[in-house]
Amino acid sequence: MTPLQPVILSGGAGTRLWPLSREAYPKQFLPLTGQHSMLQETVCRLDGLTQEHPDQALDLRDPLVVCNEGHRFLVAEQLRLINRRPLAIVLEPRGRNTAPALTLAAHVALRAGDDPVLLVMPADHCIRDARAFRTAVAAASLLAAEGAVVTFGILPSKPETGYGYIRRGRPLDRGDLMVGAFQLAGFVEKPDAATADTYLACGDYLWNSGLFVLRASVWLGLIERFRTDIAQAVARAIETARQDGEFLRLDTEIFSACPPDSIDYAVMEPLARLAQQEEERVNLPPPLVMPLEVGWSDVGAWSALWEVREQDESGNVLDGDAFVHHAQDNLLIAKHRMVAAIGVKDLIVVETADAVLVASKDAAQEVKAVTQFLQSQQREEHIQHQCVHRPWGEYESIRRGTRYQVKRLTVKPGESLSLQMHHHRAEHWIIVSGTARVTRGDETFLLTENQSTYIPVGVKHRLENPGRIPLELIEVQSGSYLGEDDILRFEDRYNRDPSEPARG
């Protein structure tokens, strides 16, 4: 049996999909293309692989996820919701791009005692034909098991200028066995429109998908050869890593010293160049590319989402309470209010509780300018949604004024906020539904629907949900300072660092 280890890289920020995608809740955690989030779709995409290809003798392992430390509870919760137990959730205290992330994953995968084939997948891509993708993965896994480094190149459907390209070389010679792979001749940066036209006409250029299949030991050998500094820095980080429940934590200072780089720049491009030299080829794992036609998109902009979503007879994509009249080829997303568009074409309109985006589809790549502006003004609309997720549940700001703020809190069954204290604010809690166990100073008591309590300034307190249904309550804060950093934690079941965003 060939062990196949899915590696999911979940480090993207998705700034071009603002205002739905935000730093604290980026696009991989959103259900943009289906019922499940993009992360969940990535995990479920492999369902049926071993049944559909029993002759390949593949042993499909539980997924291994590498993610931003601040997203760890989102990853764990989304996997739990689809009943998946990960092999590991590796936490990056600082983003260092995909080459260090894959190096981390390769070390963790090798700890199992074998040398699995790694299937490396970004968490935020869309693939509409999952069955065809599984067939390609099965074929690529056989080549990778023999030592090859395989990447997938997407057959281009248009002269796209937003993607990098892969140039394929001669077909792989395997005698009578047709495997559909080619020698990888090189990588090309994003072209201008005229060059993209020539690539499409040539037929030898494929979109760079960011998908890879190779053995863990092969990757570690390549990163050691081409980027020794990354290899050594990650090895030090793994040596000092510690297990925290289902999470593998890295030392912040040690991992932050690792140079950032992508898989392509660090390894794939120098590997492709050396493979063209006959004297070097014998000592290298062969770099291969397999053409893929599976309805792939990296959903890197609102225009890309419009392309992959189902459209009405006029080319409009409507999500939520949206209405169009004499309108064509628009994307309308309404999350909290009705959105209507009349007599317009090629527009993007995205409505959320605290922000509205209106843009031309041609300018979809420029949405990042909004997040840069928000950052320069030290605002928070690029960081958090109005509804903020926490490991115990979520809270949403309903109203804010001078010296007061009203929030709605939802605490999941069996979960608990930390034992905490505030220096500048008092809190009133009104139970809407469910049962609350409240610790206030030296007393502990239960509250049920329509009951309430008061937490004075400077008093230790905790809120728990001992029941089997979600606990819903309204919190009214009052005081001289209402910032989320006015919190002192004494006990926290989630082992959150004191420097993390607060609020429970």
Short précis:
This protein has 504 residues and is of the alpha/beta class. The protein is 24% helix and 34% strand.
Summed up, the helix count is 13
CATH topology of the largest domain: Spore Coat Polysaccharide Biosynthesis Protein SpsA, Chain A
Give the second-level CATH assignment, the architecture of the largest domain: Alpha-Beta Complex
Mean pLDDT: 93
Largest sheet: 6 strands, antiparallel
What percent strand? Answer: 25-35%
Q: What is the CATH C-level name of the largest domain?
A: Alpha Beta
| Overall number of structural domains | 3
Q: What structural category arises from helix and sheet content?
A: alpha/beta
Task: Work out the radius of gyration.
Answer: 25 Å
Index terms:
five-stranded mixed β-barrel, Jelly Rolls, 13 helices, single chain, Spore Coat Polysaccharide Biosynthesis Protein SpsA, Chain A, 504 residues, 3 domains, alpha/beta, six-stranded antiparallel sheet
Secondary-structure map:
Layout: E1 2-10, H1 38-44, H2 49-52, E2 58-60, E3 64-68, H3 72-81, E4 88-92, H4 98-110, E5 117-122, E6 126-127, H5 130-145, E7 149-154, E8 165-171, E9 182-188, H6 193-202, E10 205-215, H7 216-226, H8 228-239, E11 242-244, E12 247-249, H9 252-256, H10 263-275, H11 278-281, E13 287-292, E14 296-297, H12 302-308, E15 317-325, E16 331-342, E17 347-351, E18 356-360, H13 368-376, E19 387-390, E20 393-401, E21 404-411, E22 419-421, E23 425-433, E24 436-440, E25 443-447, E26 452-455, E27 461-464, E28 471-479, E29 488-491
Parallel strand pairs: 1-2, 1-3, 1-5, 3-4, 4-12, 7-13, 15-16, 16-17
Antiparallel strand pairs: 5-10, 6-14, 7-10, 8-9, 8-10, 9-13, 11-12, 17-18, 19-20, 20-21, 21-28, 22-29, 23-26, 23-28, 24-25, 24-27
